[in-house]
Specification:
This protein has eleven helices and twelve strands. By secondary structure, it is α/β, with parallel strands linked by helices. The chain folds into two domains: 156 residues, Periplasmic binding protein-like II (D-Maltodextrin-Binding Protein, domain 2, 3-Layer(aba) Sandwich), CATH 3.40.190.10; 104 residues, Periplasmic binding protein-like II (D-Maltodextrin-Binding Protein, domain 2), CATH 3.40.190. Helix 2 links the parallel strand 1 and strand 2. Helix 2 packs antiparallel against helix 10 and helix 7 packs across helix 8. The protein is globular, with a radius of gyration of 20 Å. The relative contact order is 0.18.
């Protein structure tokens, strides 16, 4: 009997809890496209290639996740932007994927008020009193954007709300706000799925940020989190060079310029990074 109990303890698998969030088309939790999001594909690949663990998906918003992460809760996030503040309480993997940056999403009539620019200064837009924008509470929009948001917080026309990306798109169409900051492919998908599409939206590049970002798997800065990240790194080195993994990075991008950039960064940076 004792030997049986010892064997069970030795062979029992640890569990990785993964954050999932309703954020189409990164994560699609319902409807005809359920499970077909970009992050859904990565999550499936990770879980299949980490057979030494059991896996449990936990639905929560960003504010809830980062609150738990700061308290060392054993939950991991598979598509995370790295910033200096987060490195104080999170372990990060080697680069796992890449994403093209957030843009300013507005109705075309408001873009016209700015002179129909292809790119615009977010710092300038944030203090323009003819507009009101909203951000998701607890979400990082990139290190550079986060710095701008903090620097101009006192005079900013941007507010933080505990809303999903879908809700923000709906608020934008209804005219309750004038702009949001979002990835264009996410905004396009959400608008096609969840609004009446009576308004024309457009995207404007943000002057202050680079053309792409690397993303990471992140787990809390605990012994458990360090062990998980060590396993994730070994897994990434094995699966990153595969055609299936490259295709996952390109999922839901439709414009040739975007796909060309993704393939270039995948080949020149992602595959060589450790």
């Amino acid at each position: 009997m004792l030997l049986t109990l010892i064997a069970v303890r030795v062979t029992a698998k640890e569990t990785i809890n993964w954050m999932v969030v309703d954020w189409p088309p990164l994560m699609i939790l319902e409807g005809d496209d359920k499970g077909k999001g970009l992050a859904d594909v990565f999550l499936t690949l990770y879980q299949q290639n980490l057979p030494q663990y059991k896996h449990h998906n936990m639905m929560m918003n960003f504010a809830r996740y980062w609150h738990g992460a700061k308290n060392g809760e054993p939950i991991c996030n598979l598509l995370t932007l790295k910033n200096q503040g987060r490195e104080d309480y999170m372990h990060f993997s080697i680069p796992a994927a890449m994403t093209l940056p957030n843009s300013i999403i507005m109705k075309q009539e408001n873009i016209a008020k700015l002179g129909n620019p292809k790119s615009y200064s977010l710092a300038k837009l944030m203090v323009d009193k003819q507009f009101i924008g909203i951000l998701e509470s607890g979400r990082s929009y990139s290190q550079q954007i986060d710095v701008l948001l903090n620097e101009h917080q006192a005079s900013s026309n941007l507010i933080r709300g505990v809303n999903s990306a879908r809700q923000l798109i709906q608020m934008l169409e209804l005219g309750r706000i004038e702009y949001i900051i979002e990835y264009p492919y996410i905004a396009d998908y959400l608008r096609s799925q969840y609004t009446k599409q009576t308004q024309q939206f457009g995207s404007i590049g943000i002057d202050e940020i680079p053309p792409y970002y690397l993303t990471y798997v992140a787990c809390p800065k605990t012994d458990w989190g360090k062990n998980v990240i060590d396993s994730v790194n070994q897994m990434l080195l094995k699966i990153r060079p595969t055609p299936e993994y490259r295709a996952a990075n390109e999922r839901w991008y439709v414009y040739p310029r975007e796909i060309e950039l993704i393939r270039h960064v995948y080949k020149t940076e992602l595959l060589d990074s450790r």
